[in-house]
Amino acid sequence: MSGYEPYLPEDFDEFWQETVAEALAAPLDCHRSISNDYDLEGFEVQTLDFRSVTGQRLNGWIACPPGARRLPGFVWIPPYGRESKLPDEYGTREGFVSLSFNFFGESAFHQEKYVTSRGYFAEGAESPETWVFRRMLQDAIIATRILQAQIEADEDRIGAMGMSQGGGISIWLGAWCPIIRAVCADMPFLGGVNLSLNQNVFRYPLKELTDFMQTIPVGEERVMNTLSYFDTVNQATRCHKPTQVSVGLKDPACRPDTVRAIYDALPGQKMLRTYDWGHDWLPAMVDNNRQWLAENLR
């Protein structure tokens, strides 16, 4: 064991059951283009927009092999930041339908580099009800429902995939979204954050939280309480879906010990892939993740 043990609050399940119920009951209001909006060999890519749980319009894309009908699919959750994940070799897989979207209303293919002033880690972090990640998981559930409703996708073979923030939220989806059947989580974020924040935090975006703690009364206690509902180690204890996790041995952002703690907390079928790599994309992820989803979305 890594020392990063689960530390669930007493009302953990009740909080998330209510949160998920809101997302599952939200009306599906989605519009999809009829043109090929992105040049990607082997796929037709259409843009789409849909209504967030808050009423905001969110933009994304769906990538389908030509003529696809009832293929396995996955929702692709982007890493931290306000940019969109492009439908490239990491956001798509041969033989699969995939959908990704921008959490903040930016365009489907929006690109921007992270800067602290555009960070959102501290947004609403004073309580679990208001932290931005609660809304983000709800919108990820709505996006999953939209993917399930598409004619190209098999409604019973839907997975979740992502890296860093996307890997963490994919595990959250596996824990709470009944549609999700399998998960690929590359270098998932927010593991063992209760202990990580007790150390000196120098790296952004996580440092956004420690900066925020200093700006509100009883800031450390309130933020740490919020984090207990979202820590991916805690979330992993509720993820019984087949889950593949990858760890980067040179990863300074989602450190190997925190990722292994997430993996250890998973109660069901699981696999840990170890890469001698930093916090970045790796070509081996393409085939490894496709294989995991293909085996577990039969």
3D structure, described in words:
Strands 1-2-3-5-4-6-7-8-9 form a nine-stranded mixed β-sheet, sandwiched between helices. It has nine helices and nine strands. Helix 8 links the parallel strand 8 (about 245-250) and strand 9. The longest helix is centred in the middle third of the chain and has 18 residues, at about 130-150. The mean pLDDT is about 95. It has helices at about 10-25, 130-150, 165-175, 195, 205-215, 220-230, 230-235, 255-265, 285-295, and strands at about 30, 45-50, 55-65, 70-75, 95-100, 155-165, 180-185, 245-250, 270-275. It is α/β, with parallel strands linked by helices.
Could you give a quick summary of the protein structure above?
The chain is an alpha/beta fold and 298 residues long. It contains nine helices and nine strands.
Question: Can you give keywords for this protein?
Answer:
298 residues, alpha/beta, globular
Query: How many alpha or pi helices?
Result: 9
What integer value in Å does the Rg equal?
A: 18 Å
Strand order, main sheet: write it out.
Answer: 1-2-3-5-4-6-7-8-9
Mind describing the biggest β-sheet? 9 strands, mixed
Percent helix among the residues?
Answer: 25-40%
Order of helices and strands: HEEEEEHEHEHHHHEHEH
Q: How much of the polypeptide forms β-strand, as a percent range?
A: 15-25%
pLDDT averaged residue by residue: 96
Shape by Cα distribution:
globular
Distance between the termini: 32 Å
